[in-house]
# Entry
Amino acid sequence: MGTGLLNTALDVTTSSTLSQSLVVADGVARKLWKTGRLAQESTLLDMGHIAAAVQAHPHAAARRRAELVLSRASPLAESARESFSRAAFQFLGFEQPELQHDFSDVDGFIGRSDFWWPGTEGRKGVVGEFDGKAKYTTLELRNGATAEEAVYSEKLRADVENPERLRRKLIGAGLLPGRG
# Structure
C-alpha cells in the first residue's frame, strides 16, 4: 500500500467528523495489519511519519481530532458499522472496548464478541455486538428464527444512530461515561 492511502486517511482525520474519520482510520489500520505493516496492538499514530504529519498540521483543532482518531484506530474493527459504534462510544464519553474478544470455558471456545468492556471495581464485564446483514440472510445465524423475527429482535438492541438511547443502554449495562 502506498502513501496515497495514508495521506488520504490523514486528510480525512483532520477534516471530517469523528465517525467518518474512525471508519477510514480503522480501515487503513486493518489493511496495514493484513499486509504486515502494522502490529495488531498498534495504532496509526504509532507510525512515526503519521505522528509527524499530524504535528505539522497548522490547525490545533484538526491536530487534536486526528490524534484522537489515529490513536484509537484499530485493525480489529471488522466493519464500518463497528467503527461507527466505537465513534459513538467515544462521543458519549465511554471507554473504548476490547475488540473481537474470545470467550472460552473448560470445554473450549464459546464465542467472540465485537466489543468487550472487562469488569472493573466490582462491576461485571459488558459485551457489545453489532450484527451485520448476515444475521438476517443466513439461516444458520438466525437460530431457526424467520428473517422478520431476527429484524424484530434487532430492534430491541441499542441504535448507534440514536446517541441518547445508546447512552442509556450502556449505562444500564453497567458502564459509566467519563471513564476512558
Q: What stands out?
A: The mean pLDDT is 84. DSSP finds eight helices and three strands in the chain. Residues 3-75 form one domain. The helical segments are 3-15, 18-34, 48-55, 60-72, 80-91, 134-137, 147-155, 163-172.
